[in-house]
């Protein structure tokens, strides 16, 4: 007879966290990226806190760009913020066996891929300015959607401060 797996329930608790800023949402989503579908709320809170926990270090999660982003906050408050992010529809919880793991919602993934594309573009421009190569080879392991967004930002025509364009799509010039 097959063994029955019983899912343990969980309770989301936002505490006093009624809303998150855009920067807080992006930080939570960026920190969650390497543990999506493999880790849960506790591990994510440790990444955001900047914990030296053995599991965080064993999986090189201290290299996460948002590692320690909320180092000034308590783990309880960070968990409340993650729960708010879940209730606001940026992340959801799915069970892998008996364990609840975090996954992006469509809305959360849309924000994450744009934030990651910005990081990719910054890294590319930094490498290019320093004459480093090998960036393109590293992109082979990156989600193609993120690469396309980054390349789109690289090739997008600049819009002047006035925000106006001529009918042909080039910036309008003002007479002096």
From TrEMBL:
GO biological process: DNA repair; DNA replication
Xref: InterPro entries: RQC_domain, WH-like_DNA-bd_sf, WH_DNA-bd_sf
Highest taxon of the lineage: Bacteria
NCBIfam families registered for this protein in UniProt: RQC_minor_1
GO MF annotation: an example: 3'-5' DNA helicase activity
Originating organism: Enteroscipio rubneri
Gene3D superfamilies to which the protein is assigned, alphabetical: Winged helix-like DNA-binding domain superfamily/Winged helix DNA-binding domain
Name of the protein described by the UniProt record: RQC domain protein
Limits of the RQC domain: 23-121
Pfam families per UniProt: RQC
């Amino acid at each position: 007879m097959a063994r029955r797996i019983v899912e343990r329930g969980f309770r989301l608790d936002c505490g006093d966290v009624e809303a998150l800023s855009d920067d807080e949402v992006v930080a939570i989503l960026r920190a969650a990226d390497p543990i999506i579908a493999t880790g849960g709320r506790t591990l994510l809170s440790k990444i955001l806190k900047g914990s030296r926990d053995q599991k965080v270090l064993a999986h090189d999660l201290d290299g996460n760009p948002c590692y320690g982003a909320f180092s000034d906050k308590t783990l309880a408050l960070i968990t409340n913020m993650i729960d708010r992010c879940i209730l606001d529809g940026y992340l959801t919880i799915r069970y892998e066996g008996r364990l609840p793991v975090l996954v992006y919602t469509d809305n959360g993934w849309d924000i994450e891929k744009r934030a990651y594309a910005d990081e990719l573009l910054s890294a590319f421009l930094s490498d290019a300015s320093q004459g480093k190569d090998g960036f393109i080879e590293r992109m082979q392991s990156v989600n193609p959607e993120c690469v396309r967004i980054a390349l789109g930002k690289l090739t997008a025509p600049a819009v002047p401060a006035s925000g106006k364009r001529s009918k042909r799509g080039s910036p309008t010039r003002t007479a002096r």
